[in-house]
Amino acid sequence: MNTHWHFIYAAYGIFAALVLADWLLPALQLSALKRMLVQRAKRERTAREKL
Amino acid sequence: MNRFWTWLNQLASPPYFWRWSQPIMRVCLLLALILTCVGLYGGLVLAPADYLQKDSFRIIYIHVPCAQLSMMAFVFMALQGAIGIIWRIKLCEIFAMCAAPLGAIFTAITLLTGMLWGKPTWGTYWIWDARLTSELVMLFLYLGVIALYQSYSDVRQGARAAGILALIGLINVPIIHYSVQWWNTLHQGQTISLLGNSKMAPSMLWPLLTMIAAAHFYFVASILHRARTMMLSHERAKAWVQSSLGLSATTLSTRE
């Protein structure tokens, strides 16, 4: 194996890491947002029931 | 014509967008994954090593698609920004602001993979060559657009201001594209051409074209993915969000 493969591995590693981050960060943000909205709706409903 | 505009406006309305974007996003992501697997197998396993650059040329299969995507994202961002400024369509402002981080990531990948390709090929990671410098300028433009958008407390005002910066920065796209023709650069000239003949052997070319197609599908999927997140974040107080997420009182009670 020639040394060129080290550069290829590094390039593909950076590519995979950044593309994965590009997809996962908004996905995590979306699921956190959905969870927050569900929690808020539940809290509001509980408050309404107490009244 | 009026019916067309009505249909277009309906498509751009947040509740409609929330519904139609998900199946398209999933299909595009699936196609991108399949084409990436095929392209990478072709590029890393089937394609022969280059007679001059040996195996290091295989970086082309991520470098070129990412470079194309970085420029395409900028054109898309400026176009959506312009539509947002002229017609005040909320979805276009969101699309423009979603294209900025995506474009920045792909510009960073282009620069980093280019550096890793440059070391074994040119003997240096970096040189202030016209193509490399103009691509770096584009990364700064993307970061500028993101920073300008974030600096406003009113997201719509921020999107319009950032859209103006994107339109100004658009001048850099033809500079990047033609830099290898206008100046005597270390960076190689255009290898593939849509209209003319490509300089690559077919055994090396098809994986590259497959990877380019994969990158385009990923671009659509990622833009829709980011736009859905941003749309939900902006519209969370609206009634359609409650109904779309099933947050009505009856649904909540069945969840418990």
3D structure, described in words:
The complex is a heterodimer of chains A (51) and B (256). Chain A is 92% helix and 0% strand. Chain A has one helix and no strands. Chain A has one helix spanning 4-50. Chain A is rod-shaped, with a radius of gyration of 22 Å. The relative contact order of chain A is 0.07. With 256 residues, chain B is mostly helical. Chain B is 78% helix and 0% strand. The longest helix of chain B has 33 residues, at 14-46. The radius of gyration of chain B is 21 Å and the shape is globular. Chain B starts with a helix and ends with a helix. Chain A binds chain B through residues 2-5, 7-8, 10-12, 14-15, 18-19, 21-23, 26-27, 29-30, 33-34, 37-38, 41-42, 45, and chain B through 44, 54-56, 58-59, 62-63, 66, 101-102, 105, 108-109, 112-113, 116-117, 119-120, 218, 222, 225-226, 228-229, 232-233, 236, 241-242, 245, 247, 249, 252, 255.
Give the SSE string of chain B. Answer: HHHHHHHHHH
Number of strands of chain A: 0
Beta content of chain A? under 5%
Percent helix of chain B, as a range, is: over 70%
Low-confidence stretches of chain B: none
Q: Kindly report the oligomeric state of this protein.
A: heterodimer
Q: Structural class given helices, strands, pairing of chain B?
A: mainly alpha
Structural class category of chain A: mainly alpha
With helices defined by DSSP (H or I, 4 residues minimum), what is the helix count of chain B?
10
Which runs of chain A of at least 5 residues are low in confidence (pLDDT < 50)? Answer: none
Can you write the helix and strand succession of chain A as a string?
H
* N- and C-termini, Cα separation of chain B: 49 Å
- What number is the mean pLDDT of chain A? 89
Average predicted local confidence, pLDDT of chain B: 91
Our estimate of the beta-strand percent of chain B is under 5%
The general outline of chain B is globular
The beta-strand count of chain B equals: 0
